[in-house]
Design brief:
homotetramer, 206 residues, mainly alpha, Tetracycline Repressor, domain 2, 0% strand, DNA-binding, HTH-type_TetR-like_transc_reg (chains A, B, C, D), DNA-binding (chains A, B, C, D)
DNA sequence: GATGAATGAGGGTTCATTCAT
DNA sequence: TATGAATGAACCCTCATTCAT
């Protein structure tokens, strides 16, 4: 058991996508209800209405279940970013940032409990990381976007700026979702996140 | 086993501070070497040169060991912030922020491996949280500092701004320590963090 | 799992002798490489390039695979003995014994690894046992041979003598193949085995 | 699971010899009743009136239980041989051999069922092997004995002769105990074994 | 017949925790 | 208080076997 599972093996591609889906759903539900500590492969199988053996047919071990959920979550985040950046309508830097933040926050509304557990117990897994192909793709899209707004940006190293930007988005959205004190309005927090991103990028500019 | 242990009970205060120290050191070393998955109370006891029974004399359960380490780490962070803010010399807002970030990064140099494990496997534990007395203290100190620089700050809600600021510091320092790509110089990252904090606070200002 | 499988059912006779052959070969190879503990029906099927279902088409259960291999091995031993005894050329008692021992040792040269595993993990299976038809046949042939040399033999009960003789051959050849210390030359060991058989039979003679 | 367990770790020496004894007894009884396949650590623990944890306190794994039983059996065999050879009364070669064989057969009367299982499922484990200190000791004692009777022995290489002798004793006693057909009287078989040993040694003599 | 996905009982092992000494 | 032997619930994973296609 390791709290930070590396995706060992992807579920073998099977046309039994349905079974894989069942299993992941069961994993997600159990994770939401009982946390990592309360999750075990037999329970997942039972919940999925499947035998343990079948779980191991598609997932090499317990942690790969979590890893798969993470990958899926990560993919949703990539998709959210990509969807925003793919939009051809001209937008100001701040609008772009706001759209990205908004998309990300919205993406976290689906299965918020699951995301909470995933992020709380296995952080640093849902961020578009440059290590994964999809993550790298997001990285490059954002970099392009920054280049397109070069003149509004104070940071000289856009590569570094992209990395910092992603880290900020990820962790601030994370914080907003995870443990924002009730006394702060969601909209205010959202605006603050955009302020932070925007402020960071412009900082250093003459 | 729960990846995110709540500090159930603080170690009973005993003259045997020495034993408590031994136990925590052992826990830290094992955590560094083997991660949470490889840690168990028997191993901790053996490494500390005491009996399991003694571990349970001072710590109610396994997780409280981790919690204690977290608290200690958190305390170091509080102390770092407090030390900076307690400094009476007049400083600009940016200087204050830079000093805080620097102090925090420096604080992470001690037992970096331990911090990595703690933050990787049990995030959101080292931040001065408003929930703890010490954390609340830090929170208030920062809030005061912001108030002292009210005119340089664009954010209208300083309470919210303080919370965002702490979240940013925490997660950006975290990211810097944990997984900064080798191609980015530490000094550049540090400056970026200050830019981000500074940029955020100023944003929204007319 | 039972270390000493009784051949429950012989492979149903099928035209697909080829498939049976593939399966047994796969079993043998896996046994050689990984021992009984590392053998499982799925692996056998995979190695044989057939489906598990097919394995069960021809073999009622896992152990019957081992049993079949044993039978085959036993048959080779029977054949070796029979071939020697069928030889019409007149030979002295010692020559007959020497020929049998030699034939048996030679028979163990084929697939020595497999034989080692079979004999190490499932002993008492390769001997021409009186319980099997073929074994009984060998038993009777040897008995006849002894009767033909009645005058050179000290043992009064030739039935018993045959049994002892077979046990000796089997176990000494076994020992020679399995764990003869390197310091003993194969030829010397072989001669010793013949000495033992010969010495035994003559013992008790006036 | 491996049918031929190497004694991994000896039970830690503990004054809880009693518990170790209970556990081994339980293992033996279960082995007798259900064979290796029917033995499992939980059953052993239950039968021993002990918790599984305790079994693992003294034995590193399942197989070490079997290994311990084997060692014990082997030790009994060593002891039997040693007792005979330590006897100072002058005896002829044949008498010595007969005494050894007898001692060994007698030693197999204790817990015959257990011995059957041990030898059937894990052969080559009860023989005084030169690899173990005790085995080497037996080996040397027998060698000395043969040297003392040098003039009666036809074999020129007494080292080799000792090895063959041990192999013969071991396997013939084994066969006698394991699967002697009912039609042969025990006394006759015993005499045959002595004949075989005696005959072998004298063979080759002028 | 052939296939191989699905089954699920079963078992070895770990380790947090207790408690008699 | 300190000890550490003892406990036993819990869990991951394997693999012989089945059966619908």
């Amino acid at each position: 058991m390791r709290p930070v599972p590396t995706p060992r093996k992807a579920p073998r591609q099977a046309r039994s996508q349905h079974m894989v889906e069942q299993i992941l759903q069961a994993t997600a539900r159990i994770l939401e209800e009982r946390g990592y500590a309360g999750m075990n492969t037999n329970a997942v199988a039972a919940r999925a209405g499947v035998s343990v053996g079948s779980v191991y047919q598609y997932f090499p071990n317990k942690d790969s279940l979590i890893a798969a959920l993470h990958e899926r979550h990560g993919a949703q985040m990539y998709a959210a970013v990509d969807a925003v950046l793919a939009d051809p309508r001209p937008r100001s830097l701040r609008e772009q940032l706001a759209a990205m933040v908004h998309a990300w926050l919205v993406a976290h509304q689906v299965e918020p409990e699951l995301h909470k557990v995933l992020e709380k117990e296995f952080p640093f897994f849902d961020a578009p990381s440059q290590d994964s192909p999809a993550g790298d793709n997001s990285f490059r899209r954002i970099l392009s976007m920054l280049e397109a707004h070069r003149d509004e940006i104070g940071q000289s190293d856009l590569d570094l700026a992209t990395w910092v930007l992603l880290r900020m988005m990820e962790s601030l959205v994370h914080a907003a979702v995870m443990d924002a004190p009730a006394r702060f309005a969601a909209a205010d927090i959202e605006r603050c996140i955009v302020d932070a991103l925007d402020g960071y990028l412009r900082a250093g500019a003459a």
